[in-house]
Amino acid sequence: MPKPLKILVVEPDESRARMIMDGLAEAGEAEVMVLGSATGLARHMAELGPDVVLIAMSNPSRDTLEALSVASGFNERPVAMFVDRSDDATTRAAIEAGVSAYVVDGLHKERIKPILDAAIARFNMFARLRTELAAAKTALAERKTIERAKGLLMTAKGITEDQAYAILRKTAMDQGRKVSEVAEALVTASDMLR
């Protein structure tokens, strides 16, 4: 049986918070925690460890978005925000603060769960893209280091590029290391000898 979703709700209005809790209860099992304000949001998120955060406010203030931005920096997780009104700048600021779903004038009990599901799906998609981007950056950096190491070997030994790569690969195999690690060591040693 899957573990119930831990949902942190930030809603200053008690009646709206109750409506959100009712909507979540009707949608299925969830462990719901409610905060009356976004003050100390990062600390509360670290302490409570929610799987997803739902923020409902009539009009999010700059302080709320800053608190969310700080909280998102340390506690990456899906965030859905329901607001009664908004403008372009606030929408942009909310997205930059880490909001996965930003819904204007749409806080209705029956819409909460589908929107949370969409926020989770979007968050997971962006997390996967961030992971792939980081892997691509690492691969590119390793390739640059290997190219530089091959250049050093070609200059020092007067050999071809293929021969230089073969030396790197054989050394890596002999030492049980990655070619990029051997290349990095060679480049570092070369830099130290300058």
UniProtKB/TrEMBL annotation:
The protein depicted here goes by the name: Transcription antitermination regulatory protein
Entries under Gene3D superfamilies matching the protein: 3.40.50.2300, Winged helix-like DNA-binding domain superfamily/Winged helix DNA-binding domain
**SUPFAM superfamilies named in the record:** CheY-like
In what residue span(s) does the Response regulatory domain sit?
6-120
All residue ranges annotated as the ANTAR domain in the record? 126-187
Which Gene Ontology terms describe the biological processes this protein takes part in? Answer: phosphorelay signal transduction system
Q: What is the lineage of its organism?
A: Bacteria, Pseudomonadati, Pseudomonadota, Alphaproteobacteria, Rhodobacterales
Organism's domain of life? Answer: Bacteria
**GO molecular function annotation:** RNA binding
The cross-references to Pfam families, in alphabetical order and at most eight, read: ANTAR
PROSITE patterns attached to this UniProt entry = ANTAR (PS50921), RESPONSE_REGULATORY (PS50110)
